[in-house]
Amino acid sequence: MPRRFDSHLTNVGDVGYDVSKRAILDNFKLVTNSVKGDGVHPECTSCLRSNRSCQWPTDSSDAASNQTNRANNDAASQLRPIPELISTSDPELALRDPRVFYLFRHYKDNLASWYDLNDHHRHFTDIVPVKARYSPLLLSAILAFSAISLLSSSISGPWADQANFYLLESVEILLEVTRNIEAAVSDGEVLAAICLLRSYEIISASTSINLDSLSSLARASFWNILRENITVALIERQKLMVELPDELVPKDLDSDDDYANAITILLGQVINQCFGEDTSSVDRLLYLENRLEVWKASIPHSFTPIVNHDSVGHYQRPFPFMGTLHGWHAASIQYYQTAMIILALARPKFQTNKTTDNMRYVTELTRNLENRSSEICALALSSESQAVWVNSFGPIAFCGSWLRDVRKLRVTIRGVEHWGSRTGWPTSKIIKCLRETSADDGSH
C-alpha cells in the first residue's frame, strides 16, 4: 500500500493551482518524446487507426474545404483529442494535420495582431506565418502560444497536451540554434520565437490546470519545467513564477518518483516563501520545515547514499564518496538539503528573542550550512550522470559558497567546469561565485 506523506500534516485549505511554464530560455534541456507524423497522404496513421476518412487543410476537395471551415468556425469542437501529436521538424508536413493547421490559423487570425500594435509592416501577422512554413522553431512557438491561449480562454479541446508538447519542441530547438547565438539573434526568427514564448509564459501563469487530468507526457513536462524553474531561481535568488499550493504535493507515495516529485514541490514552496518580498510568516516557515522533516522520515531506504570515506592511495578526498542507486535519489537529497539551508538562512530574520551568545549561534549555523552544502556537492561529485549534474547546478550555485574548506571549493569548481563543458550548460556564473568564495578563503 502506498504511504500517506501528509498523514501527520494539517490541511491548510484549498488554494488555486496556477501553473506557469517559466524559464523558456534558461538553457536547461528538456527531455521529450516527440511523436512525428508518418507522412502518409491522404490517409494518415491516426485516421487509419480510427477508421475515418483523412482530410487535409490543403486539399482542394469539397470535403476537405468543409472540414477546415468547420474547424475554423466552430472553435475546437470538431477536433478530437488524438494522442499522437505531430512534430514541427517538417513544418509543411505538420501543417497538413488539421489540429496543427487550426492552431496556426488561430494565431494568425486572433493573436498575431497583438505584436503589430506599433508596426505598420505587420511582421508578426504577415511575415512570421510565412517564415513558420519552413522554420520548425517559429512554427512550434506559434503552436505552443496558440494552444495555451485557447486553453486559457476555456475553449474545449486537448490544448494542455498540445501546449506542453510544442513548448518542449520550441525549447529543444532553441537549445540547438543558440549554440551560435550571434547568428541566431541576427536572423530574427529566434527573437520572434522568444516573443511568442514569453506570451506563453505570461498566459500560462494564470491558467488553471489540473495536473491529474493531464496525459503522462504533459505531467512529465510539468515536472521537468518545474525543476528547471527551480534551477534558475536558485542561481538568480528569485521566486518562481508559479504558484505551488500544498495539495499539489503527492500524498499517496507509492514509488520513488512520487517522493522525488514531492520534494521538488516542497523546495519550490520554500523558494517562493523565502525569496519573495513577504517572508514574515514564522508559522509558514515552521510548517514547511515540518513537511520537509516528514518527507525525510518517510523516504524508502533506497534513497540512502552508499558512503565511503576511504582515501585513494595517498590522496585524501575532500568529500566522501556518496553513491546512489538512481539519479533521482541524489537529486532528491540535494533538494532536501537545499530547502533546509534556505529555511536556516531565513529563520534568524524572524526570531523574537535575541540570541544570548551570538558567536555560538553563528558558529552552529555556519557548521549546519557547511555540512548540508558538503552533502549536496558530494552527491554531485560522486555521480557520472549528466542528468544529475545538470540538476545539481542550481543547488551548488546557491549552497556551494557555504563550503569553508578551500579544497572542497576547488574540487567543486573543477567538477562544475568539467560537466559544464560536457553538457554545454552555461556555468560561468556558478564558477565565478565559487571562485570568489575560494579567494576569500571560505570566509563568510
Automatic annotation (TrEMBL):
This protein's UniProt keywords: Nucleus
Location in the cell: Nucleus
Q: Give Gene Ontology CC terms.
A: nucleus
| Principal location listed in the UniProt entry | nucleus
Nucleus is among the record's keywords? yes
- Can you name this protein? Zn(2)-C6 fungal-type domain-containing protein
PANTHER family xrefs = TRANSCRIPTIONAL ACTIVATOR PROTEIN UGA3, ZN(II)2CYS6 TRANSCRIPTION FACTOR (EUROFUNG)
Record GO terms (molecular function)? DNA-binding transcription factor activity; transcription cis-regulatory region binding
Where composition is biased (Polar residues), the residues are 54-76
**Can you supply a Gene Ontology BP term from the record?**
positive regulation of transcription by RNA polymerase II
Q: Where is this region: Disordered?
A: 54-77
